[in-house]
Amino acid sequence: MTNNSTLTIQAAATVTGRRVKVVAYRSGAKMRVDGFRYPVQLAVEAIEIPDRVPLLADHMNSLGALCGHVEAFVENGDILADGKLNATQAAQELQAILADDPVEASVGIAVHKQEVQSDDEGKFILVTAGRLKEISCVALGACADTEIILARGKITMADNETTQAAEAPADELSQMIENAKTMISNLQSMIDGLEGADPNEPAIESNYGVQTVSDVRGTLERRLQATQRKLADLRSGRRTAPTPSKRSSGATDNAVLEAAAVSFIRDSEAAARCYGDEAADRADALGISSFAELAASHLRSSGSGVPRGREAVIRAALQPMLRAAGSPSYASLTNVLENALEKMAAREFAEIEPTWQKFCDTLSPKTFNPAKPVRADLIGDLEKLGPGGEIEHGEIGDDGYSIAADTYAKKVTLTRKDWINDDASALANMPKAFAMMAHRTISNLIFNHSTGGINQNPSSHWHTDNANALTTALSVDALSAAIALLRAQTDGSGNYIDIAPKTLVVGPALEGTARSVLNSTELERTGDGAAKGNPWSSLGLDLAVEPRLADDSATVWYLFASPMWAPWYVSFLNGKSTPTIETFGPDSDPNTLSITWRAYIDFGHGAGDVRASVKSTGAG
Known about the structure:
Layout (H helix, E strand, L loop, with lengths): L18 E7 L4 E2 L8 E3 L4 E2 L3 E6 L8 E10 L2 E8 L3 H10 L5 E16 L2 E17 L8 E4 L4 E2 L4 E2 L9 H21 L9 E5 L2 E4 H23 L17 H13 L2 H8 L1 H10 L4 H11 L8 H9 L2 E3 L9 H19 L8 E4 L13 E3 L15 E3 L8 E9 L1 H5 L4 H4 L1 H21 L18 E2 L5 H12 L13 E6 L4 H9 L2 E4 L5 E3 L8 E4 L11 E5 L6 E5 L7 E5 L10 E13 L5 E4 L4
Helix pairs in contact: 1-2, 2-3, 4-5, 4-6, 4-7, 4-9, 5-6, 7-8, 9-12
């Protein structure tokens, strides 16, 4: 870096190099980590644990954030460490905080292999191969029950218990005040030394990555403010534990990077629709126009170094990196693309209006096991209370069909040639294609089975015994008969249940007839020349034209009540009604040099309440 300013880093003479003890990860813990769809658990026995790793502040990969080095080891499935603080301002600040209370710890793991598993709590990601890169002190960790303490008492790691002996010496408060004053002076000098420097120029370069002048200045200013608050507390005699940081109410760095991916793949308007104007504007400011630039931006945001060469940059960004807390980074660039594509696919999916949405009630099962949605009827009417106020019991009746969800999936591969050549067009239409495939699959399944009924006895659903079957061709009179059947439906005791018609569903061959039946105000002239009006033109029935009905018959038509009455059921596992997209980088399969996306949806369907629809074969 060349500029007219001088940057001086001075270590305070008051640093004592105290030893620390660390509990960095608890066996079996599941962590919520930015960039990972599900909670993350470490298979600790499969994680490579170096003898010596850096102790950082907030996962920031810079020399200014280096607090020391610790010796890491595994005991009873926990990742533990101990070591000595060094002579940096970060170490001094950490030591001042630890004099009051422990802080939480977080691991930085380079993920080599991961797999999705599930247990009673749901799906989670198990890291089955990786390497511990660093341990960080953080305000609020992703793994519960972690801590970093000063080693000034008895430590019992094997029993997962940490006890501290006596409190600090009586004069330690005065020493902490002096330490804080020294830190403030040094931090202010370092900030002043950056005046006039180009904010985009590299300021610190090491094995841990590159920090620009702007990055360094921001870090120093945040530390200065924190230390000034700490000094004010110390002078007033308050020795409080650090306050956990709060998330910004604006767009997160993760959202900005995803928005940049959407903007690169499609355009900035799509980014704004998916992530909002703020994230889209910040994404535009990044000026990303290639996979390599997106990869480099990801590496910089995660605090990692940017290697030389297009392919090296992309490969480095595709390598998963797990940081359990304190870092805005993603697991890898594949997760950035995965989340961006899924967000795009969800919007595309929502903009399609398939026929089935007009009459299907939606279920959200937790498992793939067959389930029977219950049609519950409280038989009878409310009864007037007698003088004693005694309430009579009602009778509940039920029926229904068993419905189970299945998984439907497709995958798309982007070759090494595509991503080296920055061919974004290969991804541009993928979200829409996945959304349309999901909708087509659902519609095909519903209408290929529902046209003749469903379950063990298909003919039993629409049947004259259920007062929901006709044979007449579509006309005003036929529609009148169907409406009359719906309105006349009753419960088990013969009480009217007040079902109202909502949607007329026809095939393409009947669309013209249906529009005439629903919209014409004048049907014909009577013998005396008077106009005969259409009684249904003002009813407000919806019309849905479903091409798949032609596979069954050109004359069949349906009249459905609203989804509230459950004429038909659709079932989405855990209520996820849009496609899930998962990404696999080039290192996931040693036999290929490609990135693969797979989309899947967990869906089932089945017949609902026999009273909520009428079918006519139209055969006459």
